[in-house]
């Protein structure tokens, strides 16, 4: 199985093959409109603007699975991303990323590269860990996605080469992207 075997849905219900992104470096992200990490929409847009001419794209998949932090429908979310954060990269239909109803693409991604141990080095990490442990303990188990704004970096050949957790440094993500371009 390859990342190119999957289909995704746009907010307007149009079905798109992941083959559309062959030969591109992709950063695939589960997002949310009302999350403590929502500011990352702007950081991601800066990366997209900087590297899109070199064959890089970001694919955002809104998800309401973590604390119901994306209650809007897919069309509203896509519009909000564009108007509030200047997002010009593709925003797709809302998906589930964990459990039996997880979108097949995310099932594939998280099984290609599992999560590392969740650090608790600072207050933000400790609070997020405690919240997940209390409300979604299964999400702490590998290979589950723990929270919004988990990112998967895919090379030009369609291989998942890196997984970034929500609080990973945007500078580390940028370095990894540059190494593939």
TrEMBL record:
A Pfam family that the UniProt record links to this protein: GSHPx
Stored PROSITE patterns: GLUTATHIONE_PEROXID_2, GLUTATHIONE_PEROXID_3
Active site (record annotation): 35
Keyword Oxidoreductase in annotation: yes
Record-level GO BP terms: cellular response to oxidative stress
Superkingdom of origin: Bacteria
CDD domains in the record: GSH_Peroxidase
Gene Ontology molecular functions: peroxidase activity
Keyword list, A-Z: Oxidoreductase, Peroxidase
Family: Belongs to the glutathione peroxidase family.
Name of protein: Glutathione peroxidase
Phylogenetic placement of the source organism: Bacteria, Bacillati, Bacillota, Bacilli, Bacillales
């Amino acid at each position: 199985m390859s990342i190119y075997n999957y289909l995704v849905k746009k907010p307007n219900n149009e079905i798109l093959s992941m083959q559309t992104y062959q030969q591109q470096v992709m950063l695939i992200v589960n997002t949310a409109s009302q999350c403590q990490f929502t500011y990352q929409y702007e950081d991601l847009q800066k990366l997209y603007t900087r590297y899109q001419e070199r064959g890089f794209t970001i694919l955002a998949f809104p998800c309401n699975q973590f604390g119901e932090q994306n209650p809007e429908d897919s069309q509203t979310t896509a519009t909000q991303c564009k108007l509030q954060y200047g997002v010009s990269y593709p925003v797709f239909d809302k998906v589930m990323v964990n459990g039996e109803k997880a979108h097949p693409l995310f099932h594939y991604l998280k099984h290609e590269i599992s999560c590392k141990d969740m650090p608790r080095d600072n207050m933000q990490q400790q609070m997020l860990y405690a919240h997940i442990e209390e409300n979604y303990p299964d999400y702490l188990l590998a290979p589950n996605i723990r929270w919004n704004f988990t990112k998967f970096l895919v090379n030009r050949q369609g291989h998942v080469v890196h997984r970034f957790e929500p609080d990973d440094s945007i500078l580390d993500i940028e370095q990894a992207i540059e190494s593939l371009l």
